[in-house]
Design goal:
alpha/beta; 48% helix
Length: 776
């Protein structure tokens, strides 16, 4: 990798352009993966690679973007990847070749049913084949979820260390899951990526995203834009920008911070030739290293926000209600409590799921999943179980904290490498071989942890030290030692944390004692405070102490104004519960309305449907993302289940057969549509993904639906929609067809004889409602 790093310092590296969109019409059947041409039409693929190399591309990506176990059988997958690598190497000669890998097209837990370990296994199979060819440099692209991208990245790391990764953004600057560029960059920098960036995205959005990434990371940044929007005319796919128009963005990409520039959908060797002529040196300013915690949609710069409040309420120890719910395998309380603490002012959350009679390896991941679905705050993973901790750290979509490692050689040697592998920060408990009694003992333990960290090249700046808070009812003399240690650690430039509520254990008026400790801790420059953010006395003391000792007077005044201006909380309505994704409140409110005599149909029309319309509007305005839609749909489906005894079968709003067409393995949009349509009272027959026209025709004949929904993510599979409609007409079946996907349009729907087109679930819902209104 040394030569490539030198190349990056000398110039902006030119990546090749689109592969798939340049191979359409080159021997592909409708819906087929372009990767199959590595075997079926080698010359065409080879010539395309050569064309990019000849006009100035420094890097050639293999034609394997859609090559995975869902697209091909195991033997064919091996052939497709091995042939793809051989063709790229033949064309590239001395240029770098990267193994290109795309997404699986499925929701991963906690947002779907596919587990992280299943995704990891799928990606391992892909990278294992690449590795067998001798190619050990990978390019993971068009990712939309940090969860899935992390599975791909960790699988790739088992075979190589030279890994680049790119995400696809919407026009609002986030992925469809709501992930932001800064969080993406920080997460994969910590995991060890060689470069990170944006692809398959509008060029103006790429410029903005690269600039945001450049402010938080020193990693090489990658810009691979689309040539505008997709259009399909006479079965030919083209884009709205010419190669020359897109190449005009090259300087903007570089000024924003890009070190590597290439092209995605709709680009050709002409675009690559244009940007190769414009070569300039990278323009990157140095980035001051900071201590960040992240989740997909949020970054927390700790130095700018200390003292950081870490919510303590997600811990069954001392909270019987939490433990009882865990025993019933009801994890929703973790989501509810997480949101409450976030709304009360917590900046991070400590998550513990230990109950003596339960398996923490099972409970902790489920609890964390529920928190991730309901809160945007970074997490402290609080467990002594190594296996449970590693499971969570592996799938956690961002940079979090592990809490905690005792300052003992054996434990530090065991835990620190694992924590570093997943980009986390550790809390070091200064407990040592015995409970420390003095400041000297605490500091000796801290120095041991620093020494051990340096030996394994663990960043000392990422360590957080806990000087230990003991109950003053039994260890009164320890308090001064804890505070003095806090001050000394700060003077050494180290970060610190205190578990505040320990101090008042077993005493009355605990809030007052906790508040007093908070004040003293802030005065001694504490970095993190684990406390109850719902305790107004403690939070008031924190705000006041911050104003007095840490320059937080402006924040103190802002909080005061906000508090006196806040209106009395309104009674939660059913619509509000659905929009907020509150299952428990939603079901309870729906039950109350049904018991009061409201008609089930009226409840759906005036509450469920109206709420989902609000959700849809928020999504279209960029305020909501896929996780928000899934939460709202979950509430609506729970209400629908409750109403089944109130609503006879014939009262269903209509019947829909829905499928992702042949050749397309991406069913995220289709699955979401099925959930939403069921939530508002439609009967949905879901045929799955990669469904043949014959199977669709047979299902329409069998079920006689009111609507047929056809989904396609890829432009290469959209033509299969027309084949399905032709097959329906040939079979004499008259059904209204709604086509869905990011690239469909009303114009294309009209051309192929569909009833309508929907780029989002809620556009599809609007088409259903319009038809229902017309037939009443």
């Amino acid at each position: 990798m040394g030569k490539f790093q030198q190349l990056l310092r000398q110039k902006v590296v030119i990546l090749d352009g689109a592969t798939g969109t340049n191979l359409l019409g080159k021997g592909l059947a409708p819906g087929e993966s372009p990767s199959i041409l590595n075997v079926r039409n080698e010359d065409t693929v080879l010539e395309l690679h050569k064309a990019y190399a000849e006009v100035g591309a420094d890097v050639i990506l293999t034609n394997t973007f859609s090559a995975n176990g869902h697209s091909f059988t195991k033997p064919m997958l091996g052939r497709v990847i091995r042939h793809g690598v051989a063709l790229a190497k033949r064309a590239a000669k001395k240029r770098m070749v990267l193994g290109d890998v795309g997404p699986l097209g499925e929701f991963i837990e906690p947002y779907g049913t596919k587990t992280f370990e299943e995704a990891l296994k799928d990606y391992r199979a892909i990278f294992r084949i690449f590795s067998s060819t001798g190619l050990k440099k990978f390019f993971i692209e068009t990712m939309t979820s940090i969860v899935e991208a992390k599975a791909a990245f960790l699988a790739a790391q088992e075979y190589a260390s030279d890994i680049f990764i790119c995400f696809s953004l919407q026009d609002n600057g986030r992925t469809i899951m709501g992930d932001i560029p800064e969080s993406i960059a920080l997460t994969f920098e910590a995991l060890g990526a060689r470069g990170v960036g944006i692809n398959c995205t509008a060029p103006e959005v790429v410029v903005q995203a690269i600039a945001k990434m450049a402010r938080v990371t020193s990693l090489p940044l990658i810009a691979k834009p689309n040539a505008g929007q997709v259009q399909i005319e006479n079965e030919h796919v083209h884009h709205t920008m010419s190669d020359a128009q897109l190449a005009a963005y090259y300087v903007k990409f570089v000024r924003a911070g890009a070190n590597m520039v290439g092209g995605c959908c709709g680009t050709s060797p002409l675009y690559t030739e244009e940007i190769a002529k414009k070569r300039v040196k990278p323009i990157r300013k140095g980035v001051r290293k900071a201590f960040y915690l992240t989740t997909p949609g949020r970054i927390l710069n700790v130095e700018e926000n200390k003292p950081v409040v870490v919510g303590e309420r997600l811990n069954p120890s001392g909270r019987k209600k939490l433990g009882a719910r865990l025993k019933k395998k009801d994890y929703r309380i973790y989501g509810e409590e997480a949101l409450q603490q976030e709304n009360a002012g917590a900046a991070a959350l400590d998550v513990n799921a230990f109950v003596a009679v339960l398996n923490e390896y099972d409970t902790l991941p489920r609890a964390v999943h529920e928190v991730l679905k309901n809160s945007s705050l970074p997490l402290f993973i609080d467990t002594l179980d190594f296996k449970a901790a590693e499971t969570v750290l592996r799938f956690y979509p961002g940079l979090g904290v592990y809490n905690s490692i005792p300052a003992r050689r054996k434990e530090l040697a065991k835990w620190l490498p694992m924590i570093r592998r997943y980009g986390f920060k550790p809390v070091i408990s200064l407990i040592g071989d015995k409970i420390p009694q003095t400041i000297r003992e605490r500091m000796r333990n801290a120095k041991l942890a620093v020494s051990m960290a340096r030996k394994i090249d663990f960043p000392v700046d990422d360590l957080i030290f806990d000087p230990l808070v003991f109950p003053i009812a039994t260890e009164k003399e320890q308090m001064n030692s804890t505070l003095e240690t806090l001050s000394r650690l700060h003077d050494m430039g180290l970060k610190t944390i205190l578990g505040v509520s320990n101090v008042s254990y077993g005493l009355p008026d605990r809030s007052l004692l906790n508040a007093a400790l908070v004040t003293a801790a802030v005065k001694n420059h504490v970095t993190f405070l684990i406390l109850n953010p719902l305790d107004e006395v403690v939070m008031g003391a924190l705000n006041a102490s911050d104003a007095l000792f840490s320059g937080g007077l402006t924040t103190y005044i802002e909080n005061y104004r906000k508090r006196i201006q806040e209106p009395e909380p309104k009674r939660k309505t059913l619509r509000h519960a659905i929009v907020c994704g509150d299952v428990e409140s939603g079901v309870e409110l729906a039950k109350g309305l049904l018991d009061s005599g409201i008609d089930a149909k009226e409840l759906i029309e005036n509450h469920v449907v109206k709420a989902l319309e609000i959700v849809g509007k928020n999504y279209e305005e960029g305020k909501f993302f896929i996780p928000d839609l899934l939460k709202a749909a979950e509430v609506a489906q729970s209400i629908l289940g409750l109403m089944s005894r109130h609503m006879p079968r014939q009262a269903k709003r209509g019947k829909i057969v829905i499928a992702t067409v042949k050749g397309d393995i991406h069913d995220i949009g289709k699955n979401l549509a099925a959930m939403v349509f069921e939530s508002v009272g439609y009967e949905v027959i879901d045929l799955g993904k990669d469904v043949t026209s014959r199977a669709i025709v047979d299902s329409v004949r069998k079920h006689n639906p009111d609507f047929l929904g056809l989904s396609a993510l890829l432009t290469t599979t959209m033509v299969e929609m027309e084949n399905v409609i032709d097959a329906l007409q040939h079979a004499g079946l008259n059904v209204k067809v709604i086509i869905g996907g990011p690239n469909v349009s009303a114009r294309y729907a009209k051309k192929i004889g569909a009833y309508g087109a929907a780029q989002t679930v809620f556009e599809g819902l609007g088409l259903l409602r319009n038809q229902n209104s017309a037939t009443r």
